[in-house]
Amino acid sequence: MDAQGRGRDEGIDPADQWVLNPDTGDYELRLTPSSGRSSASAGTSEARTAGPRRRSKPETAPPGDRASVPPQRGGRRAAGGGRGDRDEARKPGGRAAPPATGRRKAKPRKSRKKKALVWTGGVLAFLLLGTGTAGYLVYQHFNGNITAVSTDGAGTGGFSKDRAINVLVIGTDKRTGEGNEGYGDAGSVGHADTNILFHVSKDRTNATALSIPRDLITDIPNCPTKLEDGSEKDIPATSGDRFNTSLGQSDRTPSCTMRTVTELTGLKVDHFMVADFNAVKSLTTAVDGVKVCLAKDIDDKDSHLKLSKGEHTLQGEQALAFLRTRHSVGFGSDLSRIEIQQQFLSSLMRKLKSNDTLTSPTKMWTLAEAATKALTVDDNIADINQLRKLGMELASVDPKNITFTTVPVLDNPDDKATVILDKSKAPQVFSMMREDVSFTAVEKQEKAAAKAKNDAKLKGEMADAADVRVDVFNGGAPAGSAQSALDWLQNEEGVLKSTNKANAPENVKKTQLVYAPNQADQARRLADMMGLSASALKPTTTDAGEMDPMVLTLGPDFKEAGSPLSAPQKAPDDIQRVEADKAVCAK
Q1: Which residues contact 311 (CB under 8 A, 6 or more apart)?
Q2: How many whole angstroms separate alpha carbon 412 and alpha carbon 95?
Q3: pLDDT tens digits for range 233-284
Q4: What's the rounded Cα separation, in Å, for the pair 222 and 237?
Q5: What are phi and psi of 51, to 5 degrees?
Q6: From its phi and psi, is residue 205 left (phi > 0), alpha (psi between -120 and 50) or beta?
Q7: Does residue 13 or residue 424 have the better pLDDT?
């Protein structure tokens, strides 16, 4: 319930519910009426709050977060009353009464911009934008709005400050909710229709938002799943299915989509968020619309979008229609729709970063209300405090260093309605994300990459491929990897003195090459062929015999023969991508 819905006077601006706590110097939400109000409920509240007051937390407030109700404006102080009863309640930006002699002074007031940012953390965590630095929306009101679903052990268990963050955003085409009956397919349980893996670098300087086409043919792994009724089901793996069937079909939940993403990319997902049609409509309305640009007139009979060439600000039904449009843009495929979705989300990011949004407490309140009601999240971020922390982690990423891109795919020769992985480009994209390589020119990243390249540089001459002698073991790579690597080395690279030794005595964390000092030239050649980093090379201390081979052990990072094991420092030139700070017109 909102403030007005709990017996308050009509017309109360939610912004007026925020007051300064002099003990902490932070603003907190007041959900009790001012004693100076003339309503009966206000009078009752005044009598109840006179005299000393105890600090308390709402029953569902997260541990460690203070949720005390600030003192009331104009309240009378009973004899022996506590300090809190003398504090003047005020909203952010107002003036506080000067502290009494001998009292501890409140911390200096934050600037208007910093106070505005205080509101945003929890809200923008939902939206993966991280524009806020803290958000004290730690109250039953918002926690009660949140809907959560189990990860079923599919994720990492939660994000961490000392590593990269991966959040999967799923847009489902489930038609439930008011006003969605006319979109057809009303009885559908929903699919993973729109999928974006949002990867934030370890140093928080950059982020990559990777769109995964719904029509991508892939393998869906075995999915242990907790169903809505509390029962558990082990949903068997399937192969050669569309990616979008990883949700909804066969009782699959978002945790199965998480597992499918990990299987596809090699990236472990920390959290997921699910948005349906109503989420799109309510969130875009909460921000007073999102600006889009059209390079031509659009009249799409399927999405019911009809707009003229030029700029438009869309919200509600129009925003949903824009995101569902595909036949009137690009090549009329789902890949074209992905591009305009990325343009829309980039514009939304810029809108939320703007002062027009950040400096409006009422807008931020409305956005928080819409976000907590509209989205379904995983059970590890099912309270405002965790969402606030996630928002703080994402806060430092500049839009110019956020890149939207799409998994490189090719038309499926067996079915023109679907696509398959582009095995020459997709592994490079996945590798860059796994190794935390920025898709944009981030100065800090470029310096680190240059240093790493210099440190890893192999000095000396390389042996001819025909002189390289190596035994290949599987130490944790996918089944059959040793043989596929051997076939590639012999047939494509000319390394004929190579042998498949099957499974290694024990698994390794990453692919490694063990060689003797007198085999260094062979090691350089093999490292150059396979894209091995310097850390993968493990020299021994004694020379090997003339006929002794090196030992190559393939680890979990080995995905496919011929794909470099160290991440490229630059994305393929011809992949689809757009930076979040750039406005692009839909064509």
Answers
A1: 291, 292, 293, 294
A2: 65
A3: 999 999 999 999 999 999 999 999 999 999 999 899 999 999 888 888 888 9
A4: 4
A5: 85, -175
A6: alpha
A7: 424
Quote the tokens at residue 474. Answer: 């599987």
Q: Find all residues with CB under 8 Å of 18, minimum gap 6, and list them.
A: 27, 28, 29, 30, 91, 92, 361
Which residue bears the tokens 């090549």?
331
How many other C-beta atoms are found inside a 10 Å radius of the C-beta of residue 271? 27
Q: Quickly tell me which residue has 């910093």 as its tokens.
A: 114
Residues 577, 341 contacting (CB under 8 angstroms): no
- Using a 10 angstrom Cβ sphere, with 0-12 exposed, 13-18 middle and 19 or more buried, the burial of residue 439 is buried
Element (H, E) at 322: helix 316-324
Let me know: does 526 contact 468? Beta carbons within 8 Å: yes
What is the C-alpha to C-alpha distance for residues 83 and 408, in angstroms, rounded to an integer? 63
CA distance 21 to 28: 7
Query: Model confidence over 147-195: pLDDT tens digits?
Result: 999 999 998 989 988 899 999 999 887 755 555 555 545 556 788 999 9
What span, in angstroms and rounded, lies between the C-alpha atoms of 157 and 177?
31
DSSP reduced 3-state for 521? helix
Q: What is the 3-state secondary structure (H, E, C) of 377-395?
A: EEHHHCCHHHHHHHHHHHC
- The DSSP output letter for 332 is S
Residues 208 and 439: beta-carbon distance below 8 Å: yes
- Are the C-beta atoms of residues 213 and 242 closer than 8 Å to each other? no
Structure tokens at 560: 């496919």
Q: Which amino acid is at 388?
A: R
Strands (E), 389-476: 402-406, 409-411, 419-421, 469-474
Closest to 403 in 3D by CA, of 440, 430, 428: 440
* Beta strands at 550-554 and 469-474: parallel, antiparallel or unpaired: parallel
Question: What confidence category does residue 297 fall into, taking pLDDT thresholds of 50, 70 and 90?
Answer: very high
329-381: pLDDT as tens digits: 877 788 888 999 999 998 988 887 776 776 777 777 787 788 888 889 999 98
| DSSP 8-class letter at 560 | S
* Tokens found for residue 194: 């729109």
For residues 112 and 135, what is the distance between their CA atoms, to the nearest angstrom? 15
Q: Is the dihedral of CA 293, 331, 408, 218 positive or negative?
A: positive
